[in-house]
Prior knowledge:
By secondary structure, this protein is an alpha+beta fold. Helices cover 22% and strands 43% of the residues.
Amino acid sequence: GAVVVHEGRVLLIRRAKEPLRGRWVVPGGTVELGETLEEALVRELREETGISVRPLEVMTVFDRIERRDGAVLYHYVIVDYRCQYVSGILQAATDAQDAAWVTEADLAGYDLPPLALDLVQRAFREAAAGS
């Protein structure tokens, strides 16, 4: 995943596919065979949003495991990077139903999952502090 704070706004997408279909989250995606994490992140952002980024550092790593009736439906390991905006005009595509640059004051209207909300709020704090 990519946490991109640019000009006081964070980049969010509304997922078009499961998991979390219809929810607002930070953009990202899966790694293709032979790609590094950073290469995958740059490709996924360009495909989903039209935005080019430069990965800077890992912000968090966590598991997303969905179980039903004792069976594991999926298990993703999520690695979220702080990224620097490089270029591009925002346009939702591929796995993104919608995309937006969102101010911190407007976050409540996007109903982010708790982990994503915490991460985005942390990114805003760190951007304000100049880190």
